[in-house]
Design a protein that fits this description.
This protein is α/β, with parallel strands linked by helices and 430 residues long. It has 2 domains: 119 residues, Rossmann fold; 266 residues, TIM Barrel (Alpha-Beta Barrel), CATH 3.20.20. The protein is built from 19 helices and 16 strands. The strands form 4 sheets. Strands 3-1-4-5-6-7 form a 6-stranded parallel β-sheet, sandwiched between helices. Strands 8-11-12-13-14-15 form a 6-stranded parallel β-sheet.
Length: 430
């Protein structure tokens, strides 16, 4: 059978707010497709022919001779994904949807698709293909047990790499170190889609992911801040770093995801090793932890001090603290925007991004706001951190959106020189 994987398109910040391109003197980050497609493609038996289309830049070929269309999506791309699925079904062809959004809203996705894969896809995928072959594909597919990560082949990132051209050149590609998370963070759907047990991919598998990208001259992004949890998670991450330290080379890593509390909880020796292993930049995500929830309220000087210390620790270790600021938390009043800008100047941040709190479906925040009647609409395409989709606690939706745009404008007003940096140094997500 011929299977076509599709990565559905979505809007980033500058697509919903084109004025950002006037205010921000940086290159726009072009993100890679999710690792889900590459992982499922690698798990597909050799008897099947597979190809890949990225909806962001190419025709999907819905009239081609294809036996199954498989679409991956998360919340901002779900509207487009379901529209594609409708178009496929109108042609009398089967279509399956997987990813975070269908995992938390499977019945909604099933209204548009022949089948929906919930959670980890590898084991369910084999059932999908078997049912398709037998002519009985349909319904919701969910694995009865977690996938054994020791059995996974390397993801087929060649499907993405072979597409590269002038119009399609992602800035980096994802590498997965673990799956699942034991925490219950209010804004995160990972425990719902991948389970509450933190499981580790073998060190040699992770190194293999990085090395196959390096062989093509590409950078790897490591987004899982669970790697900094004390104990076994950090030891697992350290063994990966040690491979490159012992080789005497820097791994081709674009950034590592982390939060301010984890920066402060990481000892100097580990930060030094990270830099030796090739880590030049942290993607420092804020707005979800006690430090960054309190640092910009004007009422928590201790949190502000800790936030400043976290940035300075990164700078002392020559790791760029590219910081993502979140506005719209319950603690945020109309003064939060000025306080964030003041913080940025105090710690001499060169680059930053700004996002609006978004209650993603399935998360604790979503359930709390939905139950309280604070959700403004369910246009999932606007659930992209660039639009106000809920009623804030201490300001109007209009004021929150205006303040978010002011942050972008005012932060970069004095940083026009970034336009003269090379692409890697001048690229941000917006």
């Amino acid at each position: 059978m011929k299977i076509r994987f599709i990565y559905a398109s979505f809007h980033r910040h500058a697509e919903d707010h084109p004025e950002l391109r006037e205010h921000v003197p940086c290159d726009e980050y072009f993100g890679p497709p999710s690792l889900g497609i590459a992982s499922i493609a690698a798990f597909t038996p050799d008897e099947h022919e597979i190809d890949f289309r990225d909806d962001r830049f190419e025709d999907l070929g819905l009239d081609d001779d294809v036996d199954l269309f498989a679409i991956s999506c998360f919340t901002p791309s779900s509207v487009r994904a379901m529209a594609i699925a409708d178009a496929v079904r109108s042609r009398g062809k089967p279509v399956v949807i997987g990813g975070i959004f269908p995992s938390v809203r499977p019945q909604e996705a099933l209204q548009h698709a022949t089948a929906v894969v919930v959670g980890e896809g590898e084991l369910s995928w084999l059932r999908v293909l078997d049912d398709l072959k037998r002519g009985r594909l349909g319904g919701i597919y969910e694995a009865s047990a977690p996938c054994d990560l020791r059995r996974l082949p390397l993801p087929r990132v060649d499907l993405y790499l072979d597409k590269e051209c002038e119009a399609y050149r992602p800035d980096d590609y994802p590498v997965q170190l673990t799956r699942g998370c034991p925490l219950k963070c209010s804004a995160c759907a990972v425990p719902l889609s991948l389970g509450r047990t933190l499981r580790y991919l073998p060190v040699e598998h992770v190194v293999g992911q990085i090395d196959q990208l390096a062989a093509r001259g590409k950078l790897a992004s490591l987004t899982e801040d669970t790697s900094f949890f004390p104990g076994a998670p950090r030891k697992h991450f350290e063994r990966i770093l040690d491979v490159y330290v012992e080789r005497g080379e820097e791994a081709p890593i674009s950034y590592v995801g982390i939060s301010m509390p984890l920066v402060l909880a990481t000892d100097d020796a580990f930060l030094t090793k990270m830099r030796r292993a090739g880590v030049r930049m942290f993607y420092l995500v804020g707005g979800f932890d006690p430090i960054t929830k309190g640092a910009f309220t004007g009422t928590n000087p201790r949190a502000r001090e800790k936030a400043e210390l976290a940035i300075r620790r990164c700078q002392e270790h020559d790791i760029d603290p590219y910081t993502s600021f979140l506005v719209g938390n319950e603690e945020d009043d109309e003064g939060v925007f000025d306080r964030m800008l003041d913080f940025c100047e105090t710690v001499s941040l060169e680059k930053a991004e700004f996002a609006i709190r978004t209650p993603y479906p399935g998360t604790p925040t979503w359930h709390e706001m939905n139950d309280a009647g604070r959700i403004l609409h369910r246009d999932w395409s606007k659930y992209n951190d660039a639009n106000v989709v809920f009623r804030p606690a201490q300001m109007s939706p209009e004021r929150l959106e205006r303040g978010y745009l002011e942050l972008w404008r005012d932060f970069y007003a004095s940083r026009r020189a970034l336009s003269k940096r090379d692409h890697r140094e001048a690229t941000i997500q917006f």
